[in-house]
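ok so dumb question maybe but i'm new to this and my supervisor (M.) told me to 'just get the structure for Carbohydrate ABC transporter permease' and walked off. so i did the thing. is this what she meant?? sequence i used:
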Amino acid sequence: MKKSINKTVLYIVNTVFGLIAISPILYALAISFMPPDQIFSYPPKLIPKKLYFQNYIDALNAAPIIKFIINSFIVSLGVTVGQVATSCLAAFAFSFFNFRGKKILFIIIIATMMIPAESIMISNYLTVGSFGWLDSYKALIIPYLSAAMGIFMMRQYYLTFPRELYEAAKIDGCNSFKFFTRIVFPMSRPIIGSLGVYTFLVTWNQYLWPLLVTSKDSSRTVQIGISMLQFSENQSFGLIMAGIIMVLMPSIIIFIFGQKQLIEGMTSGAVKG
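this is what came out, is it supposed to look like this??
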């Protein structure tokens, strides 16, 4: 009985904090469907009297939001695929291979996580600029094709695999590539899903780097493009909120469908050294 009460109280507390956390998004959603006179009415309205879609039409006319969403999707997908591939391969080498300097190299990779991204952003900008990559997908994707966080996550997961499994596969004539593609990779779907969701959301929400390397509307991502609504001639809170909701929806959908994999992957291999 006491356990049931504690569980109910926990659910209630979590529900309250969850509603508090999403209340700004719900309020932005409500404002996006309100006409201007209702937004500034007193007392403030929390629910629109009727759905007003003109804000979304005005937002689409004020800025090429669909193009920004497509750009962000291409960049986020490219970075996600690249990080999953490089992280899996690097983690496999650190987990199953023995080579000189293995521990030192892994420590160096992990140490890069302590370097603030802002401290190397100018040098990266000069590098991609010298390659002529500005205002292109290459500048937005290639510098992020590998990440120490992904390598660390995958390595921790691979260390949970019994070493005897790899030795038995070698005895049966299975080389390292086949062992990786036919055994390790299929068994890594939970952690791959976690890394994929995490990387996609982080890339989708990038602001400073896309701001540096893009200057044309045709190459901007959503986080940069949405700021154009603040300077549009028909500036209004309803228009801005409509644009924000359109930008948020893809990442929210990805998180809803991938939260299980994200949680499972983050906790898998957490106690393995």
